[in-house]
Design a protein that fits this description.
By secondary structure, chain A is an alpha/beta fold. Chain A is built from nine helices and ten strands. Chain A is elongated, with a radius of gyration of 23 Å. The relative contact order of chain B is 0.12. The chains are: A alpha/beta, B alpha+beta.
Chain lengths: 295, 669
């Protein structure tokens, strides 16, 4: 069981992650040149096509050898390689601060792993925290930024309760770029998760929703007469644990997860339920790979 | 109540029960006090709230479910309470296939210290055991008092066994276990006569369990070998039971005034505490006298009442005990009866030619008080009147002086100088006469010669006697026996070999002996009358123990007597072969009337008068001794009751474990 104090990414995991790459099914226009082959023509070493010169073209692209032979100004086109925008949205509400490891830490690990993949592939990685009003997080790029990314992740603390929809909306307003959004949350919002996800859909982002649940939530190990106190709004629920109650709870949970799954798949989003007992490397290398986020 | 006593037994008093009844409310109270829900912080109550909303629909079930532990605790207490009631039903399965139930029906078993009576308790337990018998096993029922009686031979028919157990009635008799054991042993130890090595047993031994239901008021059975019998003694009764009993009640003439009667009684207290007793003497229903006495525990006191002129009839003595908290559990010995029968004189017939000294000896004042003496000539022996009287037993004693009848009469006889007819004494042959026998020895231990000295008696000539078997030589002479006594049926014959007055050939009387001039002569005849005539007085005033056969010396012309029992039952009895009336049916206590053709000729009192039966304190922890085996009393009766309390406690334990498990292992309904 990984402890909450160990490094987010172990060296072995890092080595494994280096072989992976973030994939998107949608074509996005990166701002900077990256390692990603784009459908756009551009500057790279890979030849794509020729075309006639039109005024305004970069003279540097003229194929002088052809001009010598044909006396025509022909421009040599190369394939453009682009970077990918990768946003990791971590729900840092207090409800995430449960479990062993805490769901928040699990979310951080997941974000770190995928962020690292992005960094290695020279993608544009941005870690955003939901629920806290902290400053805009930096945009990271390149392998060297790993430590900054980890710093940013480490700095995330469970914060005040902000509705999921509110924070997602804020994110969308701030980041108009397209790319991959990895929303790591427990979806435990009493107002419902749907508005939040709709904002993301509207951004035409490639959205991955990872619902992190702790073992205690999936299979509660409680007994007796209890007064359950909500960690976020101090709401209480008095229960006496009994088999039907537990069965009913599990049913409700299943309804929640399957509802989210359906909601996402209808809108072209990817949904993944993550148990905090599954190691992050397994989640990345097995589950997310299957879903096509990495390859 | 029947159900309660049958299936449940209360082990606690009411205040213990009320304490126990407080436990379940206390548990519920504690449960509600405890029901302060533990706060637990969870990530979100979102899902829980939704789940609870769904479940509110069947909330009653929920309430029950959530109280599972409470319910289990209540169940635990309930089981413990039921266990305290000791539910159960009769009978563990008995092991073995042969059972003998010995049920004591003696007088002490009528004691009421065990409700309703000890005998009923014994019967109830026997019923339980019969029900508990394994299928196919056989049982025998023997009821015993002073005699044992097989109430039912070995059978596996249980309804028959139940029926026979119910048919056992209390008696007023004593207790004798040996009889019952011998009856039981008959089947169990068949090889008793074939115990020599090499002898094949007559039949296979059939071991049996012998259940003895008794209060243990009987002496040890000495010299009895149980063999294949395994005795189980079940004492019935209370060790602290008190009883005040009349142990003796009789009437007798006053020493100073023989025509006046005095009644005396002894009253004993067998209880553990002093008893104060009212003693009432009644004639019929009329109170004659009463007194109050107090008796120490274990003590005995006599009371005496002067009755004045003796009137024939029956007397009843009743005791009513006061201030004896342990009570008077046995009623049979609280009443005693005595009868005053008409004074009946002994009828003596002297058949003699002429014997003044004999007649004189039998007409002393004391002798004539005792007896009516008739004197007759020997010719009477041939008359029909004599023959009828002799055959009917009209006389108690017939003295034949130098003569003999053709047939022996139904009476005691004395023969002087003649042998009785018949071969017993050799009377069918010529008697051998010897001259001048010297008296050597006199049987002083016999009542007839207890105070007689014959040292200075000389005898002329005498017949030498050869008494029949069973006879006793009373006077032995140098020539042989000259006086002897021998039994004949119910009677006794005394033969004196020598004549007192002889007749010579000329018909002259002469004295054959000088005995008639000695002081011992009238003494001897008085002893003779009181001894040979005395048996007639058997029912004068003495009491008969219940169950004892009694010989009635009453006379009846018709040879038939009617005996009216205290309960009004009339029994006709005929004169037996021995010339006496035998009456056996003396089981009931009280006064029996003897009637001869509707005329009451006498009475007979039957009383318990048995200290060992009146002392009804059971000693449950004392073993009874049978031969060399001590059979301890089974003081606990659980053995034959199938008890549930062990299982209840066990299930309570299981419930406790279940509760613990549920509490710890989080098992949910």
């Amino acid at each position: 069981m990984p402890s909450n104090n160990s490094p987010l990414l172990s060296p072995e995991l890092l080595a494994k992650l280096e072989r992976l790459e973030l994939v998107t099914r949608k074509i996005f226009r990166g701002r900077l040149k990256g390692e990603r082959r784009s459908r756009r023509k551009g500057q790279s070493i890979e030849f794509a096509d020729f075309r006639s010169y039109v005024p305004g073209d970069d003279l540097r692209l003229l194929d002088w050898n052809l001009y010598a032979r044909l006396e025509k100004l022909i421009i040599k086109l190369f394939l453009e390689e682009e970077d990918l925008h990768f946003y990791a949205l971590i729900d840092a509400s207090r409800s995430m601060d449960f479990g062993d490891p805490t769901k928040l830490r699990y979310a951080k690990q997941l974000a770190a792993a995928l962020g690292y993949i992005g960094l290695v592939r020279a993608d544009r990685v941005k870690i955003e925290t939901l629920g806290t009003n902290n400053a805009v997080s930096p945009v990271l790029r390149g392998r060297r930024s790993l430590w900054r990314m980890l710093e940013v992740l480490d700095a995330i603390e469970p914060g005040d309760q902000v509705p999921l929809a509110e924070s997602v909306k804020r994110f969308c307003l701030r980041n108009s770029g397209r790319g991959i959004v990895l929303l790591i949350t427990d979806l435990m919002d009493k107002d419902g998760y749907e508005p939040a996800l709709r904002y993301l859909v509207a951004q035409r982002l490639d959205v991955y929703v990872v619902q992190v649940l702790s073992k205690e939530e999936i299979d509660p190990d409680i007994v007796g007469d209890l007064k359950l106190v909500d960690s976020e709004d101090d709401d209480t629920a008095e229960i006496t644990v009994s088999a039907p109650l537990l069965a009913r709870y599990k049913k409700t949970l299943a309804a929640l997860t399957s509802g989210a799954q359906e909601f996402c798949s209808r809108r072209g989003m990817n949904y993944l339920l993550a148990n905090n007992q599954i190691p992050v490397e397994d989640l990345v290398s097995l589950y997310l790979r299957k879903r096509g986020l990495v390859r | 109540m029947e159900l309660f006593s049958g299936y449940l037994r209360n082990m606690l008093s009411w205040w213990q029960w009320s304490l126990l009844a407080l436990v379940p409310p206390a548990i519920i109270l504690l449960y509600f006090l405890k029901l302060r829900r533990t706060p637990l912080e969870v990530p979100s109550t979102y899902l829980w709230q939704k789940s609870i909303e769904d479940l509110h629909v069947n909330s009653i079930w929920q309430r029950l479910r959530r109280n599972l532990l409470l319910l289990l605790q209540l169940l635990l207490v309930l089981l413990a309470m039921i266990a305290l009631l000791r539910p159960g039903w009769s009978g563990t399965r008995l092991s073995g296939d042969r059972f003998i139930f010995l049920i004591d029906q003696s007088a002490s078993m009528s004691a009421t210290d065990v409700r309703p009576t000890r005998l009923d308790e014994a019967k109830r337990r026997t019923h339980e055991l019969v029900d508990a018998m394994p299928a196919g096993s056989r049982a025998m029922i023997i009821s015993f008092a002073d005699r044992a009686q097989v109430a039912q031979e070995f059978t596996d028919n249980r309804s028959l066994l139940h029926e026979r157990v119910d048919a056992i009635r209390p008696t007023a008799r004593g207790t004798n276990l040996r009889d019952a054991l011998e009856l039981s042993a008959g089947l169990a130890n068949p090889g008793r006569t074939a115990n020599e090595p090499g002898d094949a047993p007559v039949a296979a031994a059939q071991p049996a369990d012998v259940y003895i239901f008794s209060d243990g008021r009987f002496p040890s059975v000495e010299g009895f070998s149980l063999g294949n019998l395994s005795p189980i003694y079940i004492p019935i009764g209370d060790a602290q039971t008190g009883n005040v009993a009349v142990t003796a009640f009789n009437t007798r003439p006053l020493e100073s005034q023989p025509d006046k009667l005095q009644a005396f009684a002894r009253v004993a207290n067998f209880g553990p505490e002093p008893a104060e007793v009212d003693v009432e003497l009644l004639a019929g229903d009329q109170l004659i006298d009463a007194s109050r006495i107090s008796i120490e525990p274990g003590g005995e006191q006599g009371v005496a009442y002067d009755l004045g002129e003796a009137e024939q009839g029956a007397l009843r003595l009743e005791i009513k005990s006061h201030a004896a908290p342990s009570g008077d559990a046995l009623a049979a010995d609280d009443v005693a009866f005595a009868v005053v029968n008409p004074q009946r004189k002994i009828r003596v017939l002297i058949v003699t030619a002429e014997n003044p000294s004999l007649v004189w000896a039998l007409s002393t004042a004391r002798a004539s008080d005792l007896a009516d003496v008739e004197i007759a000539e020997p010719e009477i022996l041939n008359s029909g009147q004599y023959k009828t009287a002799a055959a009917q037993g009209t006389y108690d004693l017939v003295i034949y002086d130098r003569c003999r009848p053709e047939e022996m009469p139904q009476a005691n006889t004395v023969f002087i100088g003649q042998l009785p007819p018949g071969p017993d004494w050799g009377g069918d042959k010529e008697a051998k006469k010897v001259a001048a026998p010297q008296i050597i020895d006199v049987e002083r231990s016999h009542p007839l010669f207890q105070l007689i000295d014959l040292g200075n008696v000389a005898i002329g000539e005498s017949v030498i006697l050869a008494p029949p078997p069973g006879g006793t030589v009373l006077i032995d002479s140098s020539r042989g026996p000259i006086c002897a006594i021998a039994p004949r049926q119910a009677f006794e014959d005394v033969v004196i070999g020598f004549e007192i007055v002889g007749t010579d050939k000329e018909g002259q009387r002469y004295a054959n002996t000088n005995w008639h001039m000695r002081a011992s002569f009238p003494t001897f005849w008085f002893s003779l009358i009181s001894y040979l005539g005395g048996e007639a007085d058997g029912t004068q005033s003495s009491s008969v123990r219940p169950g004892q056969p009694v010989r009635l010396a009453a006379r009846s012309e018709s040879g038939q007597l009617t005996v009216v029992s205290p309960d009004g039952k009339q029994t006709k009895i005929s004169r037996g072969t021995e010339g006496r009336y035998q009456f056996h049916d003396t089981d009931a206590l009280g006064v029996y009337e003897l009637r001869d053709k509707e005329k009451t000729t006498g009475r007979l009192a039957v009383n318990l008068f048995d200290p060992s039966e009146s002392n009804i304190k059971t000693q449950p922890d004392k073993a009874i001794q049978i031969g060399h085996v001590d059979v301890p009393g089974q003081t606990t009766w659980e053995g034959t009751r199938r008890e549930l309390w062990k299982w209840l406690l066990l299930s309570a334990l299981v419930v406790l474990l279940l509760e613990w498990y549920i509490y710890n292992r989080r098992v949910y309904l």
